[in-house]
Amino acid sequence: MATGKLVVLMMVIMLEGTRAISLCDMNDDGIEACRPSVTQPNPVDPTPVCCDALKGANLSCLCSYKNSMWLPSLGIDPALAMALPPKCNLDMPPDC
């Protein structure tokens, strides 16, 4: 097997083994609970589980991603993500 193919195969194996993510103090379960509310084309209102997860999130950190390609790469619409905390009766940081 060529060295390049081996490196690619190793990277795929590593990525598959690390599917769980954490974003701004929200674990994978919290992100998944909120995903229907931050995904186009038909976002829904956040569930109580989503809002509970969001209460523990670092909202300043979330704000830092609003112009990043990181959220869209996860299938998250940044505008919907920024609108989510107020829907959960949470105040956004003033610098957001």
UniProtKB/TrEMBL annotation:
SUPFAM superfamilies: Bifunctional inhibitor/lipid-transfer protein/seed storage 2S albumin. Keywords: Signal. CDD domains: nsLTP_like. The keyword Signal applies. Residues 1-20 form the signal peptide. SMART domains: AAI. InterPro entries: Bifun_inhib/LTP/seed_sf (IPR036312), Bifunc_inhib/LTP/seed_store (IPR016140), DIR1-like (IPR039265), NsLTP-like (IPR044741). Residues 24-96 form the Bifunctional inhibitor/plant lipid transfer protein/seed storage helical domain. The keyword Signal applies. This is Bifunctional inhibitor/plant lipid transfer protein/seed storage helical domain-containing protein. It comes from Hibiscus sabdariffa (roselle).
